[in-house]
Amino acid sequence: GTGTPGDTVVLTDKDGNKLGEGTVGEDGKYSITPSRPTTADESITATPTDKDGNKGTATTENVGKPDFNADDHKPTVDPMKPGSDPITGTGTPGDTVVLTDKDGNKLGEGTVGEDGKYSITPSRPTTADESITATPTDKDGNKGTATTENVKNEATSNTGATGNAGVTNESSENTSGKMLPKTGRENHNTNFISIMLSVLLAGITSLIMSNRRKK
User: How far is CA 65 from CA 43, 61, 62, 68, 142, in A?
Assistant: First the structure.
């Protein structure tokens, strides 16, 4: 700040605790590093004293609030499944998180704890694929960036319920004893055996006919 050159300026908090002191320079300015971090809205008093020990009029000002960044307060939403289970996620400690559905209906709210986590039980069961929006608001009423996630669809395909999964080509029966369709290898083997039997039969027939002619 500024003051009378040569004056000593003492900074104190609202409880009178000394936070630091410094001397006003020839340019009429002073700079004092406080002994602890200051907090938003707290009052700081600067009291001047001249070289003769005479105290001047003190000045009190409040510490300003830091600029609000909405994205810094954007929460996360953990994967959700249909039902009434609590909806959880993370956010900025102290923020209030409000849950709404796609139509803007409020489903619940909760406060982010010191550990940066929140847990909110919805006012109704959620349904598969519906969108849930989590909107944060800090203690000063500033709204942060909202996050929207969809409830997980629990439906899964019933794989393996039909068909011949797991049956090898070498097997023609399932575990219940019912016959399964022939495989390509079995058809190939059957055709080969039929051909061989036909050739053998033709050879025997030819041999018989030849013997008859000789007689």
Answer: 12, 12, 9, 8, 12
* Residue 66 pLDDT: 82
- Using CA atoms, how far residue 104 sits from 38, 79, 90, 115, 211, in Å, is 39, 20, 21, 28, 100
Q: What pLDDT score does 197 carry?
A: 76
* Strand positions, DSSP E, the chain: 8-12, 18-23, 43-49, 59-62, 87-90, 96-100, 106-111, 117-120, 131-137, 147-150
SS3 9: strand
Query: What's the per-residue H, E or C state across 95-110?
Result: CEEEEECCCCCEEEEE
Please tell me the predicted confidence (pLDDT) of residue 156.
45
List of the chain residues with pLDDT < 70: 155-192, 205-207, 209-215
Q: What is the dihedral of CA 84, 88, 94, 96, to 10 degrees?
A: -50
Q: Provide the pairing of β-strand 96-100 with 131-137.
A: antiparallel
- Cα separation of 16 and 156, whole Å? 66
CA dihedral 95, 100, 104, 106 (to 10 degrees): -90
Tens of pLDDT along 198-214? 777 777 766 676 666 55
- Alpha-carbon distance of 141 to 107, in angstroms, equals 20
Q: Locate all alpha helices (DSSP H) within the chain, ordered by sequence.
A: 184-214
The predicted pLDDT at position 198 comes to: 75
The reported pLDDT for the residue numbered 178 is 47
